[in-house]
Amino acid sequence: MSALAVSGLCKAFGGLHVTNEVNLNVEPGERRLIIGPNGAGKTTLFNLITGEISPDKGTIHLFGGDITRVPSRQRPHLGMARTYQIITLFPRDTIIHNVALALLGLSPARWNPLIDIKHQGHLIEHGLAALQRVGLAHIAERPLAQTSYGERRRVEIAMALAQNPKVLLLDEPFAGLSIDERRDVHRCLMAIPRDVTIVMIEHNMDVALEFAERITLLHFGEVIVEGTRAEVVADPRTREVYLGH
Amino acid sequence: MSARLIALAVACVALVTVPYWMLGDYYINVASQILLYAIFALGLNVLVGYAGLVSLGHAGLFGIAAYATAYMLQLGYGHAAAIVVALIVGIASTALYAALSLRSTGIGFIMITLALGEIVWGLAYRWISLTGGDNGINVRSRPEPFGYSLSSPNTFYYTTLIVFALSVAAMAVFVRSPFGASLKGTRDQPRRMNALGYHVWLIRFYACLASGLLTAVSGILFVYYTQFISPQTLALTSSAEVLLMVISGGAGTLLGPIVGAALVVVVKTVVSGFIERWNFLLGAIFVAIVILMPEGLVPGSARLSRLAWRKIAKARKPAAQEGRS
Predict the structure, then answer these.
(1) Residue at a domain's end among A120, A149, A164
(2) What is the pLDDT of residue A241?
(3) For A198-220, what is each residue's pLDDT tens digit?
């Protein structure tokens, strides 16, 4: 059974077909890389998979269960987490509060108006554990506004990991990072255990190729090449539309 | 003991002893007004400050609770029944308000709440058999719980103070709770909150109900305070006024709406006795707040005092170094 199976997925905005009959099968524990030139429909594909936009046609299955019509807010409860290409965090709060919000999202306690969130020891404990995984536990109490871009990228990843996802969707986790920051994020991603399936969009081929086992190349909303790292890199269509000659 | 606790203790003592040091019944009534409007502003602050939803129709909800109380009393029911029905009607109306207005956010939300407020105001004016139209409804007496009459300014003030203290305590718990954190999350990053598994619409809906409850409570206190309710109370200017209380004091803070309510009520009721163009003065104060403290009086004052302390500390440092050398 695939961890994530996308079948015949289509989405058009007016006359523009941004996703056209996309099929994708990601096996449990796999590290899948989605590549393609700008405008290929990579982020739209993520938005369709997470339910932020609904498809015109096609189905999405998560570990065999059809989630095509499941509201996006329920998908994290089924084991799907994502990060955003443009960092989307809570800038008025501390790092630990950001991660605690991720944990609270899956907890029934989120509806409780009577207890003090600071007294929820398990939230802080699990939040610190998630921050430990990305190497930020030592600055957990720091306001997010006082963190660097690279640290914010790692907070995004910590928030996703805090939810113990079965499928993790990473949208350009290396975008805009310095060499040192890229190395830190790469180390975090490599440490994620195999029970988490990862699908990643990335343009930075140095780090992405090292990480990926299978690669899917999208072009104008269609899958044009798919295969192992070596197969996709060697394919002339990859060179033509993405890598260049 | 921290400075915050000392300030809280001083404020509590000052509030409890108001009837002893205030200059007369008129000013005790002004204090009651400040407290009941502060509850109203705290209610609106749940939406404006913590949910990021600006309502321009809250006077409608305030008026519905006030009218429900007055109407029940007019029908001959007791005060307890009138208050319970007013609370139920107030929350039910808020639920309807929320169901319609939460179809949108931002400008859309403002416009829908504005329209709903105007509809309620129009109904109050034209549905004469229910509301008495322009003549309004008189409330002949105030309640006497356990034989404790609320007819004097002092007793009414203390009752309002108890309700106010309960409202502030409830808000303090609410904003620190997981639900409060969820609500603030939907204000800052609704898309992200949805992706984290939160039901953004439902969180906002519950926030509206919490806001409606405080608004209904203040509406009931208002109708007992004035012992009269007319469509003027539901007008757009009333909604704008309470919104200004929240914004001028500091939206998203606990103390801000209380300070804002005090400012507006004092200018309206006290300063207006000395200055004919008090509206102009109130406008000038708001303009000054927007320019000097755009975040509101409470957070703005905190920011300016921090700056001042830093400057003082900097000035002291070189002086101390000179002394040593």
Answers:
(1) A164
(2) 81
(3) 999 998 888 888 888 999 999 99
Please say which residue of A149, A164, A179 terminates a domain.
A164
Model confidence, pTM = 0.92
pLDDT number for residue A57 = 95
State which residues form the domain around A98: 90-164
Closest CA to B213 of B99, B102, B91: B91
Tell whether A133 and A182 lie within a shared domain. Answer: no
Nearest Cα to B253, choosing from B179, B204, B184? Answer: B184
- The answer to whether A102 faces chain B, any CB pair under 8 Å, is yes
Q: Are residues A170 and A149 in the same domain?
A: no
Tokens of B322: 């000179």
Q: Which residues of B touch A88 (CB under 8 A)?
A: 189, 191-192
Q: Which residue of A has its CA nearest to B177?
A: A116
> From the CA of A90, how many Å to the nearest CA of chain B?
6
From the list A151, A166, A145, A173, the residue with the least C-alpha distance to A83 is A173
Taking only the tens place, the pLDDT of each residue in B238-288 is: 999 999 999 999 999 999 999 999 999 999 998 888 888 888 998 999 999
Residue A85 lies in a domain: no
Q: Give the pLDDT means over successive 10-residue stretches in chain A (245 positions).
A: 94 92 94 91 94 95 95 96 93 94 94 90 92 94 94 94 96 89 89 94 85 91 91 87 71
Q: Which of B60, B212, B69 is nearest to B122 (CA)?
A: B60
Report how many domains make up chain A: 2
Structure-block tokens of residue B190? 């609704």
Q: Do A204 and A132 sit in the same domain of this protein?
A: no
